[in-house]
Amino acid sequence: MNILDLLQLKDKRKITMLTAYDYPTAYLVDKAGIDIILVGDSLANVVLGLDSTATVGMPEMLHHTKAVRRAIKNALLLGDMPYNSYQTNPEEAVNNARCFIEQAGCAGVKLEWFKDCLEVTKKIISAGIPVMGHIGLTPQTVDRINGFKCQGKDAESARNLIAQAQALQDAGCFAIVLECVPDKIAGLITGKLKIPTIGIGAGVHCDGQVLVINDLLGLFERHTPKFVKKYADLSSEITKAVEKYKLEVLRGEFPDQEHSYNIEEDEFKKIQGV
Ligand code: KIV
What we know:
With about 270 residues, the chain is of the alpha/beta class. It has 2 domains: about 5-230, Phosphoenolpyruvate-binding domains (TIM Barrel, Alpha-Beta Barrel); about 235-270, no CATH class. The chain is built from 11 helices and 8 strands. Helix 7 packs parallel to helix 8 (about 185-190). Bound molecules: 3-methyl-2-oxobutanoic acid.
C-alpha cells in the first residue's frame, strides 16, 4: 500500500486503518490485511499508562514506530506527531516529521489541527513528506475544545470543521481523520473532498475507519468511548490465562513432563551422589 493506492480507494472501497505500537501486534494487524497502520500518540494512554497523549514525545514515538516498522510487509505506516513536536516551530516540525520517515521508515505523518496547522502542514508537505490531517476531537489540545466531546454539533462549529477539512485538502494533505463528529457532518465533508476521510466516532459515511487496537481487542479497561466496538475481550482472556498459570505453579502442576527437559537415566546415575 502506498499513498497513491490509498487515494485511488476513495469511492471504490472502504479504507481500513488501525493503530499498533509494538512488533507482535503490528505483525498480526498487517497479516490481517489492514490498509494503514498508525503508531498513534494514544500510545501514551493505552500502552504507557499515562493520562494524556500530550505527555509522549519524539523519543517514545520513534522507539515504538521502529518496532512496528519491522513487522509490516504491506500496510502503509504512519507516524503520529506528538504534542510539541510541531506546534512551536515550523522548522522543528519539518525535522521531526523527517525523523518519522528517515529513522522509523514511515510513509507519512499525521498531525492534529491547531491554530497554525496550515502553515506547518504546508512546510512539511513541501519537504516531500505526506501529511494526514486530523480534525474534530483533537486529544492533544482537548482543553481548548471543551473536553472529550463530539465536535461540530451546531451549525457554526460544523461549518468550521468543513472549512478546516477543505483547507487541509488545499494545503496538500493526502487524507484527513475525522474524530468524534456527527455522522451527517462527516458525510458532508466526505462528499466535498477529493481526498479520503478516515472516521473514528464519525459514522459510516467516511471513506475509511480507524480504531485504537487496544480498544477493539478489549485490552484497555480504563475508558471506552461510545464509538468503540469491542471485537474481542482480551483483558479477560489474559486474566484467565495468568490466573490458571498461577494456580498450576502453586499446585506444582506446571511445569509437567511435557514442558521439561529429560536426561538419560545412565547419565543421571553418574552424577547422583556427587
Ligand atoms: O493517537 C491515535 O490513536 C489517533 C487515532 C485515534 C486516530 O490519533
